[in-house]
Iron complex transport system ATP-binding protein (Pseudonocardia ammonioxydans), 273 residues
Amino acid sequence: MPEVESRAVSKLRTERIRFAYEETTVLADLSVDVPQGRITSIVGPNGCGKSTLLRAMARLLKPRSGTVYLDGEAIANLATREVAKRLGVLPQDPRAPEGLTVRELASQGRYPHQSFLRQWSKSDERAVARSLEITGVDEFADRSLDTLSGGQRQRAWISMALAQETDTLLLDEPTTYLDMGHQLEVLELLARLNREEKQTSVMVLHDLNSAARYSHHMIALCEGAVHTAGPPHEVVTPRVIRDIFGVEADIIYDRRNGSPQCLPYQLLRAAED
């Protein structure tokens, strides 16, 4: 588990945001803080509002009430190009045109920096080259995305976000549909970006144990509200798991890094879709 600092400045925060689809409330007066320079994971059962919260933070969804703040400013008041310069977003199931190469995808991350007066430049070229190198996809930069493995594709998409040269990444279930090896590949990359680049990352994860292992901070949602937030050892507990998942579990601690790991053994209520 990454070393947790007791005090960290808030990078992103929400203040009593509410979001609903028609008459169904998904988020209710929800307030959260994302520590700067840390990895934060949002966890919880299906339908609890994890992806909705992430998309609201990215300004992809507009809350019915409440405010999202980025660097202390209301994100709704910022120009779209300015938000794109500060936030890199990787959706749950990103799509690209057929035949697009890895380099072409990474180059799209420079669009927020382009304008009528500022066209493609050497600084753009350097940013793309650096993003390809950091994510380890430079060796197949000229290959089509559809020829890559799942883990390679995810790293290519992350390279596009890095080419934006933002200091914050929002990732919606970045390990979904990946096997164990490719999941590890992506999570290790995010951990390295945090260590070496001081990248702030916020990710929605279904795997509670991966979230605990790779996060400094966790936010556990239940029915559109924050049940518990804090370092992994305060979130991954028998009580929290019982409350939000309806499961009895033992908690052990990884001898390699001390992260809490959940061992479920009894279902207390039927899981909901």
In short: The chain has a mean pLDDT of 91.
